[in-house]
Amino acid sequence: MKRLTEVDDVLPPFSPAEAGTQTITSIDLFAGAGGLTAGLHGGSDRFRTIRAVEHDLAAAATFEENHGRGLVYAGGIEEWLAEEDVPEVDLVVGGPPCQGFSQLNRNRVGVERNSLWEKYALTISKARPKWFLMENVSTFLKAPEYQQLLSWTEPNGLLSDYVVDARVLLAADYGAPQKRRRTVVIGHRRDVAAPGFPRPTHDPSAYGTVAQAFEEVRPAVTDIDLPSRTVEFSGRSFPGPFRSDELHLTRQYQDLSRRRFRKIPAEGNRFNLPDDLKTPCWIAHTSGSGDVMGRLYADRPSVTIRTEFFKPEKGRYLHPTEHRAITHFEAALLQGFPPDYKWVGSKVEIARQIGNAVPIALGQALGATIAQAAAH
């Protein structure tokens, strides 16, 4: 099986004039809030998403608010495959969760996850796309799921018509104000061009910073609750939709937390706290992660925005100067979502959608790369 391994094994530099006008149709599986789809469409106006699949109803509602009514199937991929015919498209995007093939996961959850990967491969075999694109955790190349994917591309395998390559990409290299490392897998059908991977557009001296991302955001925050608004989706009522800039909301912190925040200086963390403000665990462990209760560096990209960014005890999520964690709006900006992107769900549900999303800038770079391949 041929695999691309060298940086030079990419197509020549892309000129927008080469793109042409032919539409690139796509299906977005495990679509979440639509970050990857938004990025692809930002990378080229040739993309047209014709179907999305997302089992989390709040995330599916968010996708629909931003990308079109009736576009998303609100349910699991296995249900979708049983109920609908898979359309033939140029591109399939989205990556199922890991851990399905782990020998440690012999319970029902593991079996279900394994099935998700098989359904994902089955969708590709039915859709017959020219390319497929997956994004997953940075350690994915060592996961058994990746080996399973490779085995499917061998002769007589479910994806034997495809060649795959994978690399770990850093979102900051493509303009995201965030040091998020993710594995990107790109598969191409053997009868079409291999798109390669996008070349970095930013070097470390030109990375986007937290201060730049927050430039137009007022530092002081007093509101806590979401606006009182609901939307009907898939037979249920959900909070929303809310624009990103309506999510500049803080939390009701305990007095102990506020006292801690005030003692943590710029770029500091839990190690800067006096002992009377430390937990017994922090006192006992004087080494380890410096991100716990850490402030974001204003002049650097942020750490990876995860699903619990609103909890400073989970990582370096304190505002660079304010005595609070970053807000949902600020987290969305660090992921590249515009102020007018719409969200559906509770604060916890929306945080999960933001943290699970593909940074928009990375999606744009990948979209431009696929469009380049389609033009050759």
Written description of the protein model:
The chain has 376 residues and is of the alpha/beta class. The chain has two domains: 16-206 and 359-374, Rossmann fold, CATH 3.40.50; 210-356, DNA Methylase, Chain A, domain 2. It is 28% helix and 15% strand. The chain has eleven helices and eleven strands. It has helices spanning 35-43, 57-67, 77-83, 108-127, 144-152, 210-213, 255-263, 280-284, 328-335, 347-356, 360-374, and strands at residues 24-29, 47-54, 72-74, 91-93, 131-137, 162-170, 181-189, 230-233, 236-239, 242-243, 342-343. The strands form three sheets. Strands 3-2-1-4-5-7-6 form a seven-stranded mixed sheet, with helices on both faces. Strands 8-9 form a two-stranded antiparallel ribbon. Helix 2 (57-67) links the parallel strand 2 and strand 3 (72-74). The two termini are 23 Å apart. The model is unreliable at 1-19 and 100-111 (pLDDT under 50).
What attributes does this structure have?
376 residues, alpha/beta, Rossmann fold, DNA Methylase, Chain A, domain 2, 2 domains, two-stranded antiparallel sheet, 11 helices
Gist of the model:
The chain is an alpha/beta fold.
Taken from the alpha-carbon principal axes, the silhouette is globular
Task: Describe the main β-sheet briefly.
Answer: 7 strands, mixed
Let me know the CATH homologous superfamily of the largest domain.
Vaccinia Virus protein VP39
Low-confidence stretches: 1-19, 100-111
Second-tier CATH architecture of the largest domain: 3-Layer(aba) Sandwich
The tally of beta strands, per DSSP, is 11
What is the H/E order? EHEHEHEHEHEEHEEEHHHEHH
Report the β-strand fraction as a percent range. Answer: 15-25%
